[in-house]
Amino acid sequence: MKSSLKTAVGLGIVGAASLGFGAGTTAEAAKYEIKRLNGVSVSGQSRIYINNDGGIVSSHYDFYRILPESSLYKDGRIIPLKVGDNFYSVAVGINDIGEILVKKYNNLTYEFDKSVIFQPGKTIELDFVGEDINNKGHVVGENYFYYDIFVGEYKKKTLGFQASVINDGGWIAGKLDERPVLAMGGGGPVIELERIPGPGGDPNYYNYFVYDINNKQQVVGHFVTKWLRPLSQACMWDEKGKIKQLSGFDSIAFAINDKGQIVGKARYDGNDVRWRGNDAAILWEKEYTEKIELDNFLPKGSSAHLIYAWDINDEGQIVCSGDHDAYLATPIPLEGDLNKDDIVNLDDLAVLSEHWLEEH
After folding, report:
1. What are phi and psi of 232, to 5 degrees?
2. Given 12, 59, 158, 239, which residue has the most CB atoms within 10 angstroms?
3. DSSP for 198-258?
4. In the chain, which residue ranges form alpha helices assigned H by DSSP?
5. What is the pLDDT of residues 37-46, one digit of tens each?
6. 91: which DSSP letter?
7. pTM for this one?
8. CA atoms lying within 13 Å on the CB side of residue 212
């Protein structure tokens, strides 16, 4: 009986366009509230990361741009990430259980030589330079994959390639002999990601860089020419390893969430003459054929300029930097977007009908 009623209601939805639900309308999709993160300092291209709980980690350098320090921003408070005196680090990730990974900087050798995981109430030091941490506490970096056998105990496995990022399923993306690759952390074949051939079909014409992977095995990064003036081209590899170039000139894709939303930077082409020729924080959605400059959502009359969009969580929150300031862009919910896919259409009426059927 309920199944028949669902069918009847579903048929009635077809005539509901008059209520303002278009069959795929996106014109009202992307609106954001942008606020400055007071007290959060960033330096140049120091990245910022955000988890699905709203925890934010960032790094900045001292006046002489020599010694880096990291901090956690949570619920309006700034918490320095320190282990004793003379501890210098750059944050490279925060997972959803609050574990924070930093690269430890040796102020005697002037290089990063170890990593530290900050957990509630304790820290774990790793003997390699980590680049990413997933929600299971697994860490990748250099040629290694660290995974927990028991609570607090880590085992190192040699990967044989430069690992950059890891998702919750254990898939790792990185580079092998300058080629972008994808592999399972626990073992298995290394899968080459598609490369775009250069002049004459040369597969080695471009240098590739990998920055993030989501839980659908979609990978983002960019590539640049090796031989000419390097201009960046943002790209995304789908779950089959096929490459797609994103819109925008001199662009880089830094992060992708599980909805497939991508953030990064491209050359500014807005109307404000002050920023022409500069970089601009960018959001790519849907088919990635159009870029959205996040400056568009700044309050009218604002003097701020968002240069880099560094990370995006599954709620669509984006952390950006501009000059020496950090910003948080939070999506404003669309009225009527019941299934939270950033589009108001007939699918939302179907959700409404489901709720009605459950209550009657």
Report:
1. -85, 145
2. 59
3. -GGG-TTSEEEEEEEE-TTS-EEEEEEESSSS---EEEEE-TTS-EEEPSSSS-EEEEE-T
4. 2-13, 346-359
5. 998 988 777 8
6. E
7. 0.84
8. 27
Question: Which carries the bigger pLDDT value, residue 153 or residue 181?
Answer: 181
Which position has the token pair 């659908």? Answer: 216
Three-class SS of residue 111? strand
User: Is 198 in contact with 188 (CB distance < 8 Å)?
Assistant: no
Report the distance separating Cα 147 and Cα 156, nearest Å: 7
Among candidates 93, 92, 163, 153, which has minimal Cα distance to 126? Answer: 153
Q: Quote the pLDDT of residue 269.
A: 79
Measured between alpha carbons, how far is residue 321 from residues 41, 48, 73, 231, 325 in Å?
9, 8, 14, 21, 6
Buried b (16+ CB within 10 A) or exposed e, 125-139: ebebbbbbbbebbbb
- pLDDT beyond 80 at 10: no
Beta partners for residue 266, in sequence order? 280
Give which of 301, 308, 248 is closest to 272, Cα–Cα. 301
> Do β-strands 162-166 and 77-80 pair in parallel, antiparallel, or remain unpaired?
unpaired
Closest CA to 314 of 338, 273, 342: 342
Amino acid at position 69, single letter:
E
pLDDT at residue 341 in the model: 66
